[in-house]
Amino acid sequence: MTTDAKARAEPRQPLTRERVLRTAVRIADRDGLEALTMRNLAQELGVEAMSLYHHVANKEAVLDGVVDVVGTEIEAAASAVDAPAPADAWKTAMRRRILAAREVLLRHPWVPEVMDTRTTASPSVLRYYDGVLGLMRAGGFSYELAHHALHALGSRALGYTRELFEGGDADERDEAAAAALEELAGQLPHLVEMMTHISHSDPDSTLGWCDDQVEFEFALDLILDGLDRLREGGGQASMTT
User: Fold this and answer.
1) What distance in Å separates the CA atoms of residue 235 and residue 118, rounded to the nearest whole number?
2) Taking 60 as the threshold, does the pLDDT of residue 5 lie above it?
3) Most C-beta atoms within 10 A of its C-beta, which of 42, 65, 71, 178?
4) Alpha carbon of 190 to those of 135, 194, 209, 212, 237: distances in Å?
5) For 168, phi and psi rounded to 5 degrees?
């Protein structure tokens, strides 16, 4: 059977919202976020661009959708992790689930950039955070302390750290940072000294300029250790004005 005849004989896969969004994730994984356009998405699916609008209203709807797809992956990864019961070792359970979420994002390194631009909450991400809250409650946290904990963890609960400085292309960012530091060296002695000693150059384990695996786990452990001390001390965060 020829290729054309085989193509005619095989039933055409129906276009669905899930298929559109999973294809969008595949494009971004393979070619980068900048390649995720409605035209490229339609070409990848083998359909006319207008067909997409029956399932996603526009590019922003695609971006909302891919966050939800990856959020569902994070939910599944966190649920499948081998961790102790929160009542016995909440910190270990939380750490393993967060690192499982990070493993998902390392497969989709463009996702944090999209997450930081969303104006609506993804249902799967909300469900994941609800699970994080449930884990803390099972570990002995009051709702008040758990609320503080969620603010302290922030995006780390999902497996990445929001950048202190603006993101962008790594090479361009490094060049711009070096130029700025050189120009302002006399005014920024501490930053210049730090940058001469510290390098973030592991592209395989990085989700941002200062978000390599070592830095991520250092900050995560710092927060979890502090929260554990508060939990053991009665669950009251010290609030001063």
Assistant:
1) 32
2) no
3) 71
4) 40, 6, 18, 21, 32
5) 125, -175
CA torsion through residues 164, 167, 173, 176, sign: negative
Residue 154 is assigned to a structural domain of this protein: yes
Alpha-carbon distance of 41 to 21, in angstroms, equals 9
Give ∠ CA 105-13-35 in degrees, rounded to 5: 40
Candidates 56, 9, 59, 57; CA nearest to 36 is: 59
Identify whether 63 is part of a domain.
Answer: yes
Distance CA 210, CA 70 (A): 22
pLDDT digit string, tens, across residues 20-57: 999 999 999 999 999 999 999 999 999 999 999 999 99
* Cα separations in angstroms, 75 against 103, 161, 227: 12, 18, 23
Q: Are 101 and 159 in contact (CB under 8 A)?
A: yes
Count, residues in the chain = 241
Per-residue pLDDT tens over the stretch 123-153: 999 999 999 999 999 999 999 999 999 999 9
Residue 154's alpha-carbon distances to 32, 65, 141, 168, in angstroms, are 25, 21, 17, 21
pTM (predicted TM-score):
0.81
| Bridge partners, residue 212, by sequence | 206
Angle between helices 86-107 and 123-138 (to 10 degrees): 150
pLDDT per residue as tens digits for the range 183-216: 766 777 776 676 666 655 555 556 776 778 888 9
Coil, helix or strand for 139?
Answer: coil
CATH for 102: 1.10.357.10
How much is the pLDDT for 7? 42
Q: Is the pLDDT of residue 106 over 70?
A: yes
